[in-house]
Amino acid sequence: MEIYGIIGEKLIHSSSPAFFQDKFQKLNIDADYIPFELSDIADLPELIQSQKNLIGLNVTIPFKESVIPYLDFLSPEAEATGAVNTIKIIRAAGKTKLHGYNTDVIGFKDSVELLISGKKGLKALILGTGGSAKSVAFVLQNLGIHYQMVSREPKAKAKELSYVTIDANILYDHLLIINTTPLGMFPNIDSAPDIPYHFLSGHHFLYDLIYNPSETLFLKKGKKKKAIVQNGLNMLHIQAEESWKIWQDIN
Q1: What's the CATH number for 2-102?
Q2: How far apart are CA 78 and CA 180, in angstroms?
Q3: pTM value?
Q4: Is 109 a catalytic site residue?
Q5: Looking at the chain, which terminus has fewer C-beta neighbours within 10 angstroms, N or C?
């Protein structure tokens, strides 16, 4: 039986196992998809060695960047973003090679275009600076959308904003706001990025990469102010299908 899976620190929130198990059942594929919780990315080689039937992995928080030194090849998107969410495991001639890809890029691109419906001239705030944020930034740059990243401890050279500096003027000027942090993710559903939600309006678009719960506190606060909101479920499905194509060598 072929095995696929996902690595992350805590995976109770992940819908990837259910997505792929449903896919395998519908297509009558003899395979399994297993969540592998790792306390440290240094445990990856042991996992690869112990799971001889493991074909591919998805990668989630907090390993999308730290996994890269363990890989033998990076796709152009993975190299450009500095983040990997999909690994293909190639075993041949007694050797094992790990190839890294970033399917978050196409997943976010296709889904955010649905949200903003071709609206021109938007500026964006990216909440967070991790691996997912880098994928989002890559997409926005390619779409010609000016963005600024927001972090708790901004780096001056990167021209990041901090949450305490976000005011009415910044929110009026940045109508697309993307949450790439785990704030609000199950089971910690009562948390949300610390922005001044009272300055939001019906002109804003709020996108949360989180999909569990389906409506995070971040999105609820946006809806209260009539903003258009979207969670990350569609992105998950798109990137998962792209991962499957990579694992199966489907062009």
Answers
A1: 3.40.50.10860
A2: 17
A3: 0.92
A4: no
A5: C
